[in-house]
Every structure is written in C-alpha cells, then in structure tokens.
Amino acid sequence: MSALPLDPLIEGYLSYLDQVGRKTPRTIVDVRCTLRRVSAGTARRRPGVELWHLELEDYLHWLEDERQLGRTPAGLAKCLSHVRGLLEYAWRSGRGERNVLDGFSLQHTLRRTVPKHLTLEEAEHLVRATSLPGRSARRDRLVILLLYGCGLRTSELCALDVGDINRERHELLVRKAKADRPRAIPIPEALYTELLAYLLEHGKRGALLRTSARQRRLRSKHVCDIVSAAATRAGLRPGVTARTLRHSFATHLMDRGVDLAVIASLMGHRSPQETGVYLHVLPERPEAAVRTLPIGAGS
C-alpha cells in the first residue's frame, strides 16, 4: 500500500526534485520521509500550521525533541537540509514569507567520522588473496581490483558494460553514476592488462561482470559475497565491504599527496568538500605546508 500523499505544495516540491533537480529515486524517498516526520513532529506543538509558516523557534523545539529520541547530529543536519530546500521552494513559490532556516546549519557542530579503510598492507593482502585459478576466480579478482583501483560504488560496478572501457585512453567510463554525474576514471596499467585478458574470455558487448551460472549481470549481493570471501581468505578483520575498498582508494591517493579536487573528481563527488572526510590521512599536512613558507629568511 502506498503512503498517503502530503500537502500539495510538498508533493509539488518532490516533483520538482524529480523532474528539474534530477534527484535519484532514493533521494526523493529520503526527502519524503523527512518531511513526513517533521510535519508530524511539529504538528504536536503547532497543529494545523504548515512547515513554511513555522518560526525558527518551532524548528528548534523539534530538534530538541528529536535529540531526546536519540537522533544523531548527522541525522538532524540531513533533516534540516531537506526542510531548508522545501522552505526555499515555498518562498520562491510565494507560499512562504521567508525561509527561516536560511543560513541555519548544524554542520559546524559535527565531527566527521573517519571512513573505514584498509591499510596499504591490508590492501596488498586482499589483492594477493584473489590470485586463484578459474574463470569465476578471475572475475572475482577483477571485482576487487575495480573497487579498489578505480574507487567505484557497488552500483556503478554492477552497471558497467564492456563498451564502457575506452581502450584508446585506458579509461573507464562510469555512465550510471550517482546523481546522474557520469565520469571517466583512468585505469591503472596493471589493472588494464588484467582487464584485457579477462575480456578475451567474456565477449565484446553487454555486461562486463556476469554470474557464473546464468551469465546475468552481477548484482550488489554478489559483489558483497565476493568481497567478504576475499577478505576472509586474506585474514582481514570482519566488516570489510565494497565501500571499504572505495574509501581505501581515496585514502591511499590522499596519502600519496594527490590533490583533493582530483580525488573528488575520481570519486564522483559534487565538490571537494565531500572529499574532506579523507583529510584524516595526514593530520599534520596543513602545519607542514605552512612551515615551507620562507618566513624568517634573511632579507
């Protein structure tokens, strides 16, 4: 059974996100859930008052209620972002007098969580653990190498076709990327060599990675099982996932001094700010950079 529709203005905003903002279906579901939750929560104090007619004080009360229920600061910041977008839409539509959440953010109070990643030694163990004979084993090795060597999301990996490999430029074209932001990723030479050998056995078109039994496109569950099995063989700690390999890709690039903007582009982030979580790699880098300034040198 589908959920009951929200206020027509909210439904209009969700349609705007879909058709104009080109947000993913998952994002729109998240925003819908947030607005439904906030509407129910604020109605307990201000019944019958639409979200775009509430005052900042009303939202502060709602935030405190949510904190008491155990919501994390990150979760609350995400909710505020969703509501702020709605209020901006209502204001521009002439339904609201102003956006009371404009300029209000909890982000400055949040401490970024260090992404779970492998050390270089652990990554080497993982790659060595994939060196097994057999066609399915070579496919599984390629899954690990693409996740770690190109920083792909699981959905991006599963969506790859043979035609997405640019053999002239040695690049991987990620067409079905998050937020419809396709990108090209240089393929490391060692990985490119293995990729060509793999293609000799798996045809020239269609899905790049297929199941062994029915030759269907790999799905997220298959990738999860492949990564888990490889991590177990490598003797790594429990909890290593495809996302761990993606985070390891970015972390190890940062460790080698690659520019943050370059990593953001390779990861498919909307801006370098999203990539800032990887600054944990070299916490002393800003201080080291400042020490290179020629201050104090003889005039």
Protein model, in words:
The model has no long low-confidence stretch (mean pLDDT 86). With 299 residues, the chain is mainly alpha-helical. A three-stranded antiparallel sheet has the order 1-2-3, with no helix packed on it. The radius of gyration is 24 Å and the shape is elongated. Strand 1 and strand 2 (171-174) form a beta hairpin. It has two domains: 8-109, DNA polymerase, domain 1 (Orthogonal Bundle); 120-280, hpI Integrase, Chain A. Helix 6 packs across helix 10 (242-255). The termini are far apart. 49% of the residues lie in helices and 3% in strands. The chain is built from twelve helices and three strands.
Distance between the termini: 77 Å
Please compute the radius of gyration using only Cα atoms.
24 Å
Shape: elongated
Number of extended strands: 3
Q: Counting H and I runs of at least 4 residues, what is the number of helices?
A: 12
Mean pLDDT: 86
Helix content: 40-55%
CATH architecture of the largest domain: Orthogonal Bundle
Tell me the series of helices and strands, N- to C-terminal: HHHHHHHEEEHHHHH
Instruction: Output the CATH homologous superfamily of the largest domain.
Output: Intergrase catalytic core
What number of structural domains do the residues give?
A: 2
Low-confidence stretches: none
Range of strand content? under 5%
Strand order, sheet with most strands: 1-2-3
The name CATH uses for the topology of the largest domain is: hpI Integrase, Chain A
Structural class by helix and strand composition: mainly alpha
Main beta-sheet annotation:
3 strands, antiparallel
CATH class category label of the largest domain: Mainly Alpha
